[in-house]
Design goal:
Blueprint lengths: L12 E9 L4 H11 L7 E7 L4 E7 L2 H4 L3 H5 L5 E9 L12 E5 L2 E11 L2 H10 L10 H10 L5 H9 L4 E9 L3 E5 L8 E4 L9 E4 L3 H4 L4 E5 L5 E5 L2 E5 L9 E2 H7 L5 E2 L2 E2 H16 L5 E4 L5 H11 L7 E3 L12 H11 E3 L8 E6 L6 H12 L4 E6 L21 H4 L2 H8 L3 E4 L2 H7 L12 E2 L1 H4 L7 H6 L1 H8 L3
Parallel strand pairs: 14-23, 17-20, 20-21, 21-22
Antiparallel strand pairs: 1-4, 1-10, 2-3, 2-4, 5-6, 6-7, 7-8, 8-12, 9-10, 9-11, 12-13, 15-16, 18-19
Helix pairs in contact: 5-6, 9-10, 9-15, 11-12
Bound molecules: guanosine-5'-monophosphate and magnesium ion (MG).
Length: 487
């Protein structure tokens, strides 16, 4: 699509958000929280602080550690409240104007917004807003919130926020900071995570934290209070935490891929430790698709907990047969296919003595384009493995995510157009197996999948999209026909 509404370079965003209320070192603590959430986005980072009078902002491309370690940067963000964001975008502008938190001045004061997820009617809303005279500064979905809040006829920030939320469709967790409050919101189905934490009351009332994952609490010394509920708005003020549920009741559809890959293994998500969940997924995978072998080797780092579960269940030794170089970013960071190929080689190397002459079972979390698996299998063979079997701790990724996980368009998903046997051949493995969908639900203690009311969003594996996709219908009928193609 072309036009001036900016959709062309809009991107799906995987992000991390962190907000803090009432802490003497709010900006420094936010930098620490963002550092713990670095896995959720590495492209850009930003912090907005509020000192009781004015908002201050520092945003930059790159990693948290590269941008927020200097004392003078932290000193430029005074105040007891702050809001931060890590951004990762697949396509589109890597430009500062897209870096969050976004900030705007309103007649009621200032408002900063940080958002994780993806709106599925952003294009339609953007077009309507542009027609009304709203001047967009960025190409991010999050700016839609800002304009909807600006034009709302309600008077209080919270009422305006609710008014805006009622118009957006999508998967989002967002934190907004106004002069008077820190607000956390999860979309009605709770697809993306958001948690509430509490700081010990060293001064006054103690403080509050909102963050994408619990791993951001530990680093700042905060205690987990609870998940923000699907469809809930928590409003943090000096009076405490108020809960508002403007959407009525709907059953939760948390993103199952957070358990498989995205969340950090030391996080507890919706009451379930991610590390233990991944080990159970690996054990289930072993029960479903075991094959005789000498050694279980994880594709590091994402395949490690599942491989441990697999090894325990199959009673085959677990070995680090592939070593990861930690000074290379995630493969997905690399923007082009050719660079991505290079990236995999930079990232992994074979630990030859653990592979030579052995029947190897490789365990990884997912196959998206197939680039990683192909390279890894080739590397393991090259190191002298007798057999290479690939086991994947997710079902085949056959559909794109429109809710904030970076899966490419369907045409690039290997599993969308190939059978498991064809994929095995393409990646050069002696055998390939994925965990079953019911097995995945089983491992998460929610199985088998209740097809009438699934407990998770698993659209990337099933094409069962729980949130409507107006922009798709609007803009890309070709993609829509791909979407509605029967499984
Ligand atoms: P492929 O190489 O098949 O395209 O991608 C699979 C690899 O990418 C897996 O090793 C997996 O750990 C990783 N991966 C899967 N999903 C995502 C994602 O959404 N973001 C990033 N950064 N990496 C991913
Ligand atoms: Mg991986």
């Amino acid at each position: 699509m072309t036009g001036n509404d900016g959709h062309d370079d809009k991107m799906h965003e995987e992000c991390g958000v962190f907000g803090i209320w009432n802490h003497a070192d709010a900006a420094a603590v936010t930098a620490l929280g963002l550092h713990a959430l670095q896995h959720r986005g590495q492209e850009a980072t930003g912090i907005v602080s509020f000192d009781g009078q004015r908002f201050h902002s520092h945003k930059a491309l790159g990693l948290v550690g590269d941008n927020f370690s200097e004392a003078k940067v932290i000193a430029s963000l005074p105040g007891m409240r702050a809001l931060g964001h890590n951004r990762y975008a697949t396509t589109g502008d890597t430009v500062l104007r897209n870096v969050q938190p976004l900030y705007a001045d309103f007649e009621f004061g200032g408002l900063a917004v940080a958002h994780n997820g993806n709106l599925t009617n952003a294009t339609a809303l953007r077009r309507a807003l542009v027609r009304r005279g709203c001047l967009f500064q960025s190409t991010t979905d999050s700016e839609v919130f800002i304009h909807l809040i600006a034009i709302s006829l309600y008077s209080t920030v919270v009422d305006r926020l609710i008014d805006a939320l009622k118009q957006v469709i999508g998967a989002y967790s967002l934190i907004a900071m106004s002069d008077g409050a820190l607000m956390g919101v999860r979309d009605p189905l709770g697809v993306r995570p958001l948690i509430l934490g509490r700081l010990p009351p060293t001064e006054g009332n103690g403080g509050w934290v909102l963050a994408s994952e619990t791993c951001a609490l530990d680093i700042v010394g905060a205690e987990f209070v609870r998940d923000v509920e699907p469809g809930e708005i928590v409003v943090i003020t000096d009076q405490g935490v108020q809960s508002i549920k403007p959407f009525g009741k709907s059953a939760s559809r948390f993103c199952v891929f957070e358990y498989i890959y995205f969340a950090r293994p030391d996080s507890v998500v919706e009451g379930m430790p991610v590390y233990a969940a991944r080990k159970r997924i690996g054990a289930q995978l072993a029960r479903e698709s075991h094959v005789a072998a000498d050694v279980i080797v994880p594709v590091p780092d994402s395949g490690v907990p599942a491989a441990m579960g697999y090894a325990t269940e199959s009673a085959i030794p677990f070995e680090l047969g592939i070593i990861r170089n930690h000074y290379v970013g995630r493969t997905f960071i690399e923007p082009t296919d050719s660079i991505r190929h290079l990236g995999v080689k930079l990232k992994h190397s074979a630990n030859k003595p653990m592979l030579e002459g052995k029947r190897v079972i490789l365990v990884d979390d997912s196959i998206v384009r197939g680039t990683t698996s192909r390279k890894i299998v080739e590397m393991v063979r090259h190191a002298g493995a007798a057999e290479v079997h690939m086991r994947i701790s997710s079902p085949p990724t056959t559909y794109s995510c429109f809710y904030g996980i970076d899966t490419p368009e369907r045409g690039k998903l290997l599993a969308a157009s190939h059978t498991v046997e064809e994929m095995a051949e393409l990646i050069g493995a002696d055998s390939l197996a994925f965990i079953s969908l019911d097995g995945l639900y089983e491992a998460l203690n929610k199985g088998p999948r209740n097809d009438a009311r699934p407990q998770y969003c698993d659209a990337c594996f099933t094409g069962d999209y729980p949130i409507s996709l107006p922009d798709m219908i609007d803009n890309d009928t070709r993609q829509l026909s791909l979407l509605t193609e029967s499984r």
